[in-house]
Amino acid sequence: MGIGEIWSNLGSIMASIMFVYTMYEKFFPPQIRRYVGKYTHKFTYLMYPYIKINFYELSGERLQRNETYTVIQTYLSANSSQRAKRLKAEVVKDSQNPLVLSMENNQEITDEFNGVKVWWFANHTPARTQSFSVYSTSDEKRFLTLTFHKRDRDLVTTSYIRHVLEKGKAITMKNRRLKLYTNNPSNDWMRYRSTKWSHTTFEHPASIETLAMETKKKEEIINDLLKFKKGKEYYAKVGKAWKRGYLLFGPPGTGKSTMISAIANFMNYDVYDLELTIVKDNNELKRLLIETSSKSIIVIEDIDCSLDLTGQRKKKSEIDNDENEEDKNPIIKRKEEEKKESKVTLSGLLNFIDGIWSACGGERIIIFTTNFVDKLDPALIRRGRMDKHIEMSYCGYEAFKVLAKNYLDVESHDDLFPIIEKLLGETNMTPADVAENLMPKSITEDFETCLKNLIQSLEIAKKIAEEEEKKKIEDEEAKLKTKKQEFVQEEENLKTIENSKENVKENGFSH
Ligand SMILES: Nc1ncnc2c1ncn2[C@@H]1O[C@H](COP(=O)(O)OP(=O)(O)OP(=O)(O)O)[C@@H](O)[C@H]1O
Ligand SMILES: [Mg+2]
């Protein structure tokens, strides 16, 4: 029978079905009908060869958006864009591609995994009340149904779903915008919707390639980071928490903060910039740690100035603020009070780095920066806590070449490069100062002028350094001379005393 014939006979087919159903209801009592219904259902269930799993968009008592649903949707959008015929576009926050395509409601797509075929269906039960939200309202349900054959149960429920989640997460990670977090003072934690960390989009253009540093050192850092990123199994095997500590030390302007941004971009990790001075005690520190996510970098900049962890020094801020106490406005005063209140101790910080809580989340890098590595307590920076110590030093020739390429697009210059190489060997200049000199001061300045500007600055810096060195030597010599004179004077005094004693002995009296 063709489709046309079925259409023309549809009326009589429907009438026959209605007739059979009426007869069935008339001649069979409800008990028998219930009995038949139950066994028909069981029979159909036994004969139906497919299994269905639902993944709901909203879950939990408060109907929060289910992470798994989002990840599967991401996986399906990457796969369904070629296969589903009707797609919907949604604007997603915090993603590099804000417009995300996914399959439209009531659409089905197929997927294959290790030769097994599965079907995904996007279900939607419409809301009774109207809403303008992107997400579902409480009486509106969206869910994805995964259908597969009974015989593939093991493969699908273990490997396939894991594969979908891993792929979906990887796509999310790749597309997401990095975030830069900073901790809020604990007084604000209890306010409505206030969280322990505030964040903004992290958009620093630094990369490891553009970092001015010797190639060998750079490669060493890249290899270390890659080994860490792929080290999940390794860390599990050796029984170590999946985290790594870096200590960046060196004079101001040598690129420590730039290096942190470059690492974040390279690893695709969020950055948690921890301001220790507003953390009141060790317990608060622990609570902040718990609220950080994995695949992140926790940074404590200028660790030597953050807290009195060595017991020797005054905080940088306190030194600045000791002056003009009366002129301060109340907000600054409050902030200072908060700083003074901080009772985070060295042991609290050590626990933060490698205590039991520090392992939660995994895949985390902790970075400390300091200008004065010698001031830090050895316990804080010993290997195992700060696994890698990276010295950020004054600009060498190799680092200069990176900056020249970045700022001027120049890789060599027969006359000027050798002069710069020689001068850099003779004087200390930070990459920040070299970069500043290389930057054209006007649109008419060509690269040769910029290189000459740098040479001039290096010569001045060299002269100043030489003069300082000369002055230092002169000061030392003057000090030595004074010491010598003091010594001679002392000797003369001693001699005089000795002579007086002799006189007393010989003449029996003193003057
Ligand atoms: N190694 C470097 N490679 C590329 N640029 C650099 C490097 N070092 C410094 N710079 C440039 O100098 C500026 C200052 O550097 P940065 O803030 O990273 O220094 P720092 O070591 O963190 O200094 P501080 O100790 O004062 O915090 C940066 O904006 C960057 O442009
Ligand atoms: Mg810095």
Structure description:
The protein has 511 residues and is of the alpha/beta class. The chain folds into three domains: 49-127 and 138-175, no CATH class; 182-391, P-loop containing nucleotide triphosphate hydrolases (Rossmann fold); 395-502, no CATH class. Helices cover 50% and strands 16% of the residues. It contains 17 helices and 15 strands. The protein has helices spanning 3-27, 30-47, 67-83, 153-175, 215-229, 232-238, 256-267, 282-290, 303-306, 316-321, 330-341, 346-354, 378-381, 397-408, 416-426, 431-438, 447-507; strands at 50-56, 58-59, 64-65, 87-91, 99-103, 108-113, 116-125, 141-149, 179-183, 197-201, 243-249, 270-273, 296-300, 364-370, 388-391. Strands 10-9-12-13-14-11-15 form a seven-stranded mixed beta sheet. The chain has a four-stranded antiparallel beta sheet with strand order 1-8-7-6, covered by helices on one side. Strands 2-3 form a two-stranded antiparallel sheet. β2 (58-59) and β3 (64-65) form a beta hairpin. α8 (282-290) packs parallel to α12, α14 (397-408) runs parallel beside α16 and α15 (416-426) runs parallel beside α17. The longest helix has 61 residues, at 447-507. Bound molecules: adenosine-5'-triphosphate and magnesium ion. Residues 256-257, 301, 369 line the site of magnesium ion (MG).
